[in-house]
Amino acid sequence: MPVTSDDLLTRLRERGIAYQLSEHPPVLTVEAMMAVCGAIAGAHTKNLFLRDGKKTYFLVTLAHDAQVDLKAFRSVLGARGGLSFASADALREQLGVESGAVSPLAALNAAPDSVRVFIQDNLLAESRINIHPLVNTRTLTLVPGDLLAALRAEGHAPEIFALPDAAQSAAL
């Protein structure tokens, strides 16, 4: 049974991780999220659930306005073969969430070593980061270091990456 949003919040409280929770109408895209949640203080994010030709899954958290060329991004992730978006079925099976609710914390629903978690380095320099807590009707605001600690505590140590110029594109 997947971890629910309420389960996640309980785990954060049990670990002494402070957060702010904002409730809002469902948001399915970055554009909708910014229209509804743009006034929430902190860095806003977007999340990509990708897979390569060897069926390795990648959960990638980026700044909301980052543009990525998937072909060039392969080398950043160490992907083998082509890199593409994972299916909605894989999203549910691997992360226990629906499209529009992807979050780095969805890794809590993944089996150990089944999904590699990546977080863009510039997000860690922010005082606060905004992510979905496994549903797209809430936004969780927390300190980036606490996000890293929560992931590590659950056995999903994130890999930090810089987005090189070659991997940036107007494609996404």
From TrEMBL:
Query: What GO molecular function annotations does the UniProt record carry, in alphabetical order?
Result: aminoacyl-tRNA deacylase activity
From what superkingdom does this record's organism come?
A: Bacteria
Gene3D superfamilies to which the protein is assigned, alphabetical: YbaK/aminoacyl-tRNA synthetase-associated domain
Q: Where is the YbaK/aminoacyl-tRNA synthetase-associated domain?
A: 24-148
Cite the CDD domains for this sequence: PrdX_deacylase
Its family remark reads: Belongs to the PRORSD1 family.
- Protein name, entry field: Ala-tRNA(Pro) deacylase
